[in-house]
Design a protein that fits this description.
The structure holds 2 protein chains of 2 kinds.
Chain A: H1 6-10, H2 14-18, H3 22-54, H4 59-81, H5 101-111, H6 113-153, H7 159-167, H8 170-190, H9 194-246, H10 253-279, H11 282-287, H12 289-299, E1 304-309, H13 316-337, E2 342-349, E3 352-359, H14 371-382, E4 386-390, E5 397-404
Parallel strand pairs in A: 1-2
Antiparallel strand pairs in A: 2-3, 3-5, 4-5
Chain B: E1 4-8, H1 12-24, E2 28-33, H2 36-45, E3 50-54, H3 64-75, E4 81-85, H4 90-98, E5 105-109, H5 116-127, E6 131-133, H6 135-145, H7 154-164, H8 169-176, H9 180-193, H10 204-214
Parallel strand pairs in B: 1-2, 1-3, 3-4, 4-5, 5-6
Classes of the chains: A alpha+beta, B alpha/beta.
Amino acid sequence: MLPRTAWQAMAQKPLSFVTSPWPWRALLYLASGVALGAATLAVIAVLATTGTMLLVVGVGAVVLCATVFSGIYVARFERWRLRLVDLDPAPDPHQSPAAPGLRGWFQTRLHEPVTWRELGYTAVSMIALWWLDAGVLLFALGAPVLTAMSPLDDPSAWPWVIVAVALVPSAPYTITAWAGCRAALTRAILAPRDNELGDQLTEITRSRARLVDAFELERGRIERDLHDGAQQRLVTLSMTLGMARLDLEPGSAVDRQLELAQEQVSLTLGELRDLIRGVHPQVLVDSGLTAAVEDIATRFAIPVEVDLQLPVRLPRDVELAGYFLITEALANIAKHSRATQAAIRGRLLTDLFVLEVRDNGVGGADSSASTGLTGLADRVAVLNGRLRVSSPPGGPTLLHVEIPCRFA
Amino acid sequence: MSLRIVVAEDSLLMRDGLVNLLTRFGHRVVAEAADADELLEVVRDDVPDLIVTDVRMPPGRADDGLRAAVTLRSTHRGLPVLVLSQYVEQSYAARLLDSDGGHAVGYLLKDRIGAVTDFVAAAEKVATGGTVVDPEVIRQMLQRRHDPLSRISAREREVLALMAEGRSNAAVARALTVTEAAVNKHVSNIFTKLDLPVAPDDHRRVLAVLTYLRA
């Protein structure tokens, strides 16, 4: 595995670490830290002094304010600099201002905890960290040089050269260790916390839910079009053919032709009905999950025991997810399991819908291999639910689903 | 026999077809309704001999037609209703059959209208108090009921098989090398699953065995 941070790099074999770019990156990180720290100290000292002096005039308040917010810019640079010793990105936790303009910007920034963490980090960095950077650099690089130079004053001190040479290989470790330490601290303080990522995560879930909604809407539209369009026309066609046959001699050539035509229409209607049921089960919408599932169960090739106890209608999206879960699970059982029996059990536990589909088949269902199961897991995940499968080779297979219900 | 019929169907094409068909066979369509509300209103003013209605209709575009039919049968006892549907689902048919004792009702797939003579005969049968259920729906209902033993687990089936050989619970327990308590539990499960409630006149053990032997 390629190292992604300075610390990980140190865990490699010594030779590959010392010859890798990582010690140099750490060196650059510390050196730039010293420069940044010194610059920050200088700028803030000037700002704070001028601000305090101008406070009497009033402009000073603005300058002091700028001092407070300077942390944001220091932190931005720190996060960017972090990439020298830590390849994983540290995103900016700041949110875009709620309102446009300078006022909105200030309001948002003042209310963000990260602004204050950044200010604290800047203060610590300015007061302590960059001095430590400088100290580590001086010790790691200066100590061998000074030691090596001691025989120049006193030739009898020549064994110190050996010590100096021995110190050289330790320098990359000292520098990288401190650079890693500083990077870890920076990440801990400046990277987004979970709750700061929260908004983005919610947004993603919502958009997935929107996608599913759009999909369901489309299914509903297709079903409606087929039901009100093609189905009605075919029925009317069959009726017209039937009426026409009334005027004909029964069993005549034309009557036979019309009868054949009617049979074709009838077959088409049957196929259309199956298709529509797969797209959007009307019985589910009208009568709820229990009725819909009992209807599927009767159509199923092997006996299915249905035991759904739902005192109320589930929320629409949960109902739909439950229905498609069961149809897909039954389809899987029919295709792969060689089961002779299946059972569906569903309960509503306060606001959690718990669904179990089991069969006595050969097992071995693999959620990572089966696209059907993955699709089901996606459907459940959109509703913040979870799906677990137990299917040891030899069976039996149990599908356990929990979906939280939010009743409006 | 000339019937006074109300036809409720939202598709104009279908409705015209139905009216033509019924008229052709000598019946009179006294009113037409394009949605469930209209149907309820039309029938309130003048109760016909038969209502022919679609399951799915406005205003809800769901099972409004079926619900209107069930409502009408609760207010006008014995009012004959023939429901036409695109759905084989037995739950729709079951709701209709549950209304007012299931007399004078019909549930037919729209496909059947094509066989015009049979269709009109079915309508007349409903009007005279008969019950008509689409063969496709019946096939499904029978499939569901056909094997009462399908609900029994493999272990319970073994117990039942030994019971059929006339063995006592203790003997069954020995044969399956389980405790007698476990056998008792299996037996009571079997009674529950075969819908054999405690009754003074029946010996449930014998009834369970009979069910097993018949299957």
